[in-house]
Amino acid sequence: MIFEDREEAGRLLAEVLKDRIHYEHNPIILAIPRGGIPVAYALAKELKVPMSIVVVRKLGLPWNEEAGFGAVDPEGKTYLDEELVNYAKLDAKTIASIVEKELEELKSRERKFLPYGYPNLTNREVIIVDDGVATGYTAIAASGFAKSRGAKRVLVAVPVCPRDSEKRFREYADEFICYHPSGEMSFAVGMFYRDFHQLSDSEALDYIQRAKEEGLFEP
Q: Can you list the residues of the chain whose pLDDT is less than 50?
């Protein structure tokens, strides 16, 4: 399965989601920036559900920032892969330093993408969306944040994931939906997209502006 781009992935994911949404629970889609924004935009258009953003940050190993050992949510709560933390012999001081650095970037992105703050999530169905999950910790952090803000039900919905991903989300999300679970041994989200360029902040803001103009963005 190869998606042309993130918008196509969102449209295909919408076909799976359309019968799983409870409109009576005032649903909202929360995109993880930046790659989740085009997916969420396509979903919002197809499902007629408003979208917004949830800013979370991956916590990367000191010697390889691309290798994540967890994530931090907007309230500063950390979600850690304890097995990897122990294996990498990361002490509390090292973890705290990485969390502090990522929180600074998180707050900067909140000011850029969400100048008016997060929408009200109380008693709502919240759909957490990204362009895919690998370890899944950023989506886990986003789910935990939605729950802490009073969400009635949290779904995580992604176009692609490793086949064993669902069990990681059982503690944090009410439902995990993946369009294409993959059994690839050396899994990377970008393997499943023809166009997987890294979105710039300006591209992300363009999607947000389009969603606002089409009445699809909240607040």
A: none
Contact 32, 50 (CB under 8 A): no
Count the Cβ atoms, other than its own, within 10 Å of residue 212.
13
Q: Is residue 146 part of a domain?
A: yes
The number of angstroms, rounded, from the C-alpha of 65 to the middle of its chain's C-alpha atoms is 18
Residues 5-17 have pLDDT tens digits of: 999 999 999 999 9
Name residues whose C-beta falls within 8 Å of residue 213's C-beta, 6 or more positions apart in sequence: none
Domain holding 74, by residue range, is: 58-111
Say whether both 142 and 198 belong to one domain: yes
pTM for this predicted structure: 0.94
| Sheet strand arrangement including 64-72 | 57-61, 64-72, 78-80
65 in any annotated domain: yes
Task: Give the pLDDT confidence score for residue 64 in this predicted structure.
Answer: 86
Instruction: Looking at the structure, tell me whether residues 50 and 78 fall in a common domain.
Output: no
Distance CA 102, CA 74 (A): 10
Cα(82)–Cα(88) distance, rounded to whole angstroms? 10
Q: Confirm whether 126 is domain-assigned.
A: yes
